Amino acid sequence: MDRDREPPQEPAADPHVQGIEAALAFFLEADQLKNVERRNRLADGSRRENTAEHSWHLGIAALVLAPFASEPVDLATAVAMALVHDIVEIDAGDTFAYDDAEGAATKQAREEAAADRLFGLLPTETGRRFREMWDEYERGDTPEARFVMAVDRLAPMMLNLAEGASTWREHGITRSRVIARNGRFIEQSLPGAWSVVLAQLDAAAAAGVVDPA
What CATH code is carried by the domain that includes residue 64? Predict the structure, then answer.
């Protein structure tokens, strides 16, 4: 008789618990962003910035600069996008903003693969929302994406100007390259801020801190 009995069934997994475990696993995975070093330095020049610090700084920038944006933005969406947009660098690494060689050529493929893996760690609905925010930023086709792109370019520009432009000098970045890289994004969404940082850039170029070419 015992041989005819069905083996005991494993209890069904609790989807709520599974979701919490997935969210916590992603939270720990995101800690790795603190180890991704960027090229630019902190404002005091003491060391290089990491990508987690950069993302946090963009969230702060979004909070304080939203009133000066050229088009209305949903602040909660903008801050979330600022925090999420560079998580892919855990796998893909940081690609130098002025890289026009192999790093730039492979950037999209590396980051797409990273987005697939990292956002796939999350509970399904949260992962979908994060991926949609990341894709929205990459497309740059909403007020929030344009605004976050502006602060994403404004922040390192300001840090470079504050610490003496050592990264720009190290890599031969001229005034015209800084403007070509950043100007159209910042001016479109934060025209007042662009006027301020452009004046600072011109002053640094006039003083010989930045190559005026």
Answer: 1.10.3210.10
Is residue 52 in some structural domain?
yes
Instruction: Mention every residue, 6+ apart, whose C-beta is less than 8 A from residue 179.
Output: 198, 201
Whole-prediction pTM: 0.91
In a domain, 66, yes or no: yes
Each as own residue / partner, the long-range contacts of residues 50-55 (CB below 8 Å, 24 or more positions apart, any chain) are 51/86, 51/89, 51/94, 54/86, 54/155, 54/156, 55/82, 55/83, 55/84, 55/85, 55/86, 55/87
- For residue 1, tell me if it sits in a domain: no
CA distances (Å), 6 to each of 22, 89, 90, 145, in order? 32, 49, 47, 56
- Name the domain count of the chain: 1
Q: Which domain holds residue 122?
A: 16-206
In a domain, 102, yes or no: yes
pLDDT tens string, the chain, 213 residues long: the values are 455 566 666 666 788 999 999 999 999 999 999 999 999 999 999 999 999 999 999 999 999 999 999 999 999 999 999 999 999 999 999 999 998 877 788 999 999 999 999 999 999 999 999 999 999 999 999 999 999 999 999 999 999 999 999 999 999 999 999 999 999 999 999 999 999 999 999 999 999 999 999
Residue 50's DSSP bridge partners are 37
